[in-house]
Structure of Flap endonuclease 1:
Amino acid sequence: MGVKITPLVQEEKKIITFENLVGKKIAIDAFNTLYQFLAIIRGVDGSPLKDYSGEVTSHLSGLFYRTINIVEKDIQPIFVFDGLPNPLKMEEIERRRTIRKDATKRMHEAQDLGREEEAANFAQASSKLTSEMIAESKDFIKAMGIPIIQAKQDGEAQAAYLVKQNYAWAVGSQDYDALLFGAPRVVRNLSQNRTKKVKSTTVKVDLEWLSLAKILQSNELTQEQLVDIGILTGVDFFPGIEGVGAKTAYKLIKSHHSIDSLMNNNIEIRKKPISESLNMDMVNQVRNIFLKPEIDPNIPPLKWKKPNQDKIFEILCEKHNFNKERVTTALNRLKKKAGSTQRTLGDFF
């Protein structure tokens, strides 16, 4: 779902370029990125890329070509994978499963009627990341020579920890949840195309940078208050209060300072006492997920190695029928000088 706090961060979004990230380590939320690839790397009918046996390969295509684009620019990615979900997230996981099932049904209906654009839209919402895809993605990232961190629970919490402890400079994610986990910096659109189609119009996609300190300062909020706003609007671990968006939640917290005060005074929200929508046991559980997340503090040495070309060819070309000439051309790009510092990849790795 991703926390919907866009109005609070909109003014603090800074447009940057890849040159601003030269030499920096970025802790990428792996699941978030893989779902992006599954959603946007598709054929004209909206279907995901597949090999000859019908296995989906959109995630591998994204990992290969778009990660090369990042590495070429002298940026050091670290992929952080989710662990077991917090029990409070199971309801959100089930909600997403229902959405995918409904979207898949609607996609097939639109395809049967020859409505390609409509089918493509539903196809994006039908993306499913399987355990096999996750395991293969890990093997492939390792073959690329890029380090992987396995989170205990939420990948964005672990990625935020890497930034707070100076193992990385920023979290790479499309969602704002990393800010609730306390990530000092977040970079958005790192793995996106530089342009996208919106209603048949080509729109530029900018690389964005967010500073948690600046967001808190400009909105005159504490980290705890930002988390409370997230709870009111809805997060992966709680659906929020119906009809309450970021602007309303912000006004409530600015006026009453915390959810505790809202509860103590049983403030009415949308003509309904807040006690009918929240209880403090649940609030404190969700707060602790963000403010005291389950993370693994034992970070292994982060090493970027030279790509294992044989393994890459094995996964892409032998197993999934990728075009060997295209793969070879892309791998050769890794041998050229990368980024504005003009360092060789030997120096980089």
In short: The chain has two domains: 6-215, 220-291. The mean pLDDT is 85.
